[in-house]
Write a structure and sequence with these properties.
The complex is a heterodimer of chains A (323) and B (336).
Chain A (H helix, E strand, L loop, with lengths): L4 H26 L14 H8 L7 E3 L5 H6 L4 H8 L33 H14 L6 E6 L6 H13 L3 E7 L2 E2 L2 E2 H4 L5 H7 L4 E5 L3 H16 L5 E6 L17 H9 L2 H11 L5 H24 L5 H4 L10
Parallel strand pairs in A: 1-2, 2-3, 3-7, 6-7
Antiparallel strand pairs in A: 4-5
Helix pairs in contact in A: 1-2, 1-11, 1-12, 2-9, 4-12, 5-6
Chain B lengths: L1 E4 H15 L3 E5 L25 H5 L4 E3 L4 H13 L3 E6 L9 H7 L3 H4 L9 E6 L14 H5 L5 E3 L4 H13 L4 E6 L6 E4 L12 E4 L4 E5 L3 H13 L5 E5 L2 E3 L3 H11 L2 E4 L8 H12 L9 E3 L10 H7 L3 H12 L3
Parallel strand pairs in B: 2-3, 2-4, 4-5, 5-7, 6-7, 10-11, 10-13, 13-14
Antiparallel strand pairs in B: 1-8, 6-12, 9-11
Classes of the chains: A alpha/beta (323), B alpha/beta (336).
Chain lengths: 323, 336
């Protein structure tokens, strides 16, 4: 696969933005600046960016509780995200959604989702719209190994085949549904086999390799855009941290955690691109500096931004008010 | 007797019942935790620690981790209950009930009546409820009215560590499906809890505080708030009786009606949007059966008719605050 220098820069910029953003979320959460829960996407950057790389604003994605990375990969504004995660009035959802419900419909981002298995049925509907309106666009459901055990997901897979809609099911298999390993929770050893059993192709890709994810996704897109119906991807990746920030993870050995870090997709991408002589170290340094500045600015603005005003905002955006 | 938290009381109830009755099992997501992983299994014990240590004591046959499959969890609990076990199933957050409601209201709730009285379904479905944790719209609901309106379910909302233990033991020994709603907001609350097992019967309200001028009725996490408002009013000489029905179904109508007969004034505090809430339900009960006792309009203090907002400033106002409870009380004090 040959990508232009600009594309390579864009890929790294997106992955590094997720990395820097999530590391900052972890820090701000620990300092008490982020209310509630935070489930970060550290380790899975190549998956989100690889899947979203060729998608436009008019293609849709549905996401999970671990959705920050999907948002960034889809081009959602980082500042609006940080404001939302801190519960500020200027956030993407006015502070009403928070980390687990960030949505930006203008970017084709149908929302992070706090219900495991929530997004796949919605993606079938978003794909139905594309088929109905003959847009040539697709809808992607990000979902996980944990969600692969939910009835809603089975129903969505089957219906996508029956309706022959341009839906792509991206199963990010990071080995853990919350605190339980996939080897315990999935009765059959292969998620891809399960997806295939519903009647669609499904490819297993190395989620720690951006190029592998992109290659798999390109096949999926070609298939879906050509009107052949849905496509599955089982993206095997690593979760660097626990289920949520602060999870002590006694269920994972230090060796396993070190192994996950050793498979890091970012240095792998950098080394490969440097080795091929496509970008040089200065290019990477420039991207990183620019991203860190962007994230820093987002945090600084979010920290001092006002919270919503209950008198004005609590009952805004409802159909009916009952005093 | 010793001081225990609400979470410890829940844990002790399940532990003691498991020791007493080998038919009692625990089933749910991460009730043990860490299954199949490289490290230690059993260390999670539910995300808020309610089932902590049970896996080590009773092992994987009786403390059963499941995939993230709520319909299968609830359905399996109902099926196991129908055939002789006493499952204590866990719904990590009550919000997830949306994924599996059929198994609750079309299946478990209906067996006894629909099968002509021949079936027993002795299952407990424990679920965490409530706002105040900045957990946003899909992890913060209470949903007790949804369960309360279903014939065939018993619905429990403990408001203290003492009640949590006694009501949960009753729930486990009960032969019908019981929805046991644990208020996240109360998890750290401490109180005196006897070490030995004891039961609190369903449908018997607790008069948390006696008074003669006004009646407050509140459930779960709203009970301490109602008490705080009652204490503030007491400083001005207004004696408020605070009633915690403990179970929304069966409901102790008599205690509520007797109290209103004495006080003539009623405020119902409910962590729920206002329509079809327990506040509306109890207001309806008193309007129907206690009308002649009333000296003033009934007031309902509820959440607004919105999903639970994430931002702290919004969520704090979403919940019924002691200030709002006090204001509602004052608004009916002036009536003769």
């Amino acid at each position: 696969m040959q990508l232009s220098r600009d594309d390579l820069k864009r890929a790294y910029e997106r992955m590094f933005t997720i990395r820097a953003f999530e590391e900052r979320v972890e820090k701000e959460f620990s300092q008490g600046n982020i209310p509630g829960f935070a489930h970060v996407y550290l380790g899975q950057e190549a998956s989100g960016v690889g899947v979203c790389f060729d998608l436009g604003d008019e293609d849709y994605i549905g996401s999970t509780h671990r959705g920050h990375g999907h948002c960034i990969a889809k081009g959602v504004d980082v500042k609006g995200m940080m404001l939302e995660i801190m519960g500020k009035a200027g956030g993407l959802c006015g502070g009403k959604g928070g980390s687990m419900h960030i949505a930006d419909l203008s970017k084709g981002m149908l929302g992070a989702n706090a219900i495991v298995g929530g997004a796949p049925p919605l993606a079938v509907g978003a794909a139905l719209t594309q088929k109905y309106n003959k847009t040539g666009k697709v809808a992607v459901a990000f979902t996980g190994d944990g969600a692969s055990n939910q009835g809603t997901v089975f129903e969505a897979l089957n219906m996508a085949v029956v309706l022959k809609v341009p839906a792509i099911f991206a199963f990010e298999n990071n080995s853990y549904g919350e605190h339980t390993h996939v080897s315990y929770a999935c009765g059959a050893p292969s998620i891809a086999d399960r997806v295939r059993a519903f009647g669609m192709p499904c490819e297993v890709v190395d989620g720690m390799d951006f190029f592998a994810v992109l290659e798999g996704m390109r096949k999926a897109l070609e298939h879906a855009r050509a009107g052949h119906g849905p496509y599955g991807l089982e993206i095997q990746c690593k979760r660097f941290l626990g289920h949520f920030v602060g999870d002590p993870q006694a269920y994972r050995t230090p060796a396993e955690l070190a192994e996950a870090r050793a498979a890091d997709a970012l240095p792998r991408f950098r080394d490969r691109v440097l080795e091929a002589g496509l970008l040089d170290a200065a290019d990477f340094e420039a991207i990183e500096a620019q991203v860190l500045e962007l994230v820093e600015a987002a945090v600084q603005e979010a920290l001092v931004a006002p919270f919503p005003d209950p008198a004005r905002d609590l009952t805004r955006d409802v159909y009916v008010r009952y005093a | 007797m010793s001081k225990k938290t609400y979470v410890q009381a829940i844990n002790e109830a399940v532990r003691q019942e498991m020791r007493r009755d080998p038919k009692v099992i625990v089933i749910g997501e991460d009730v043990a935790g860490g299954q199949g992983a490289t490290g230690e299994a059993g260390g999670v014990g539910s995300v808020f620690g309610q089932m902590q240590g049970l896996y080590r004591e009773f092992g994987p046959d009786r403390v059963i981790d499941t995939p993230i499959s709520e319909s299968a969890i609830v359905g399996a609990a109902a099926g196991a209950a129908l055939t002789g076990l006493r499952p204590v199933a866990e719904m990590m957050f009550v919000d997830f009930v949306g994924v599996c409601f059929d198994q609750i209201y079309n299946q478990a709730a209906k067996f006894r009546y629909m099968f002509g009285g021949k079936a027993r379904t002795p299952m407990v479905l424990r679920a965490t409820i409530g706002a105040g944790f900045r957990a946003a719209a899909q992890h913060s609901q209470t949903l007790h009215p949804l369960f309360t309106m279903v014939p065939g379910l018993k619905v429990v909302m403990p408001s203290s560590p003492y009640d949590a233990k006694g009501l949960l033991i009753q729930a486990i020994r009960d032969d019908d499906p019981v929805i046991f709603l644990e208020s996240k907001f109360l998890f750290g609350m401490e109180g005196e809890v006897p070490d030995e097992p004891y039961r609190i019967p369903f449908g018997e309200a607790n008069i948390v505080r006696e008074g003669k001028h006004m009646t407050f009725v509140a459930f779960g996490a709203m009970v301490p708030r109602a008490v705080a408002a009652a204490e503030a009013l007491a400083k001005e000489g207004v004696q408020v009786e605070v009633i915690d029905p403990r179970t929304t179904s069966p409901l102790d109508e008599d205690t509520i009606l007797e109290s209103v007969a004495k006080t003539g004034r009623l405020v119902v505090i409910d962590e729920s949007p206002p329509r079809c809430s327990l506040a509306a339900d109890i207001a309806g009960l008193v309007a129907d059966k206690g009308f002649h006792s009333l000296k003033a309009p009934i007031r309902q203090v509820t959440c607004p008719h919105t999903p639970v907002p994430f931002s702290p400033t919004l969520e704090d106002e979403y919940l019924p605050t002691p200030a709002r409870i006090e204001a509602a009380a004052r608004s009916i004090l002036v009536h003769a």
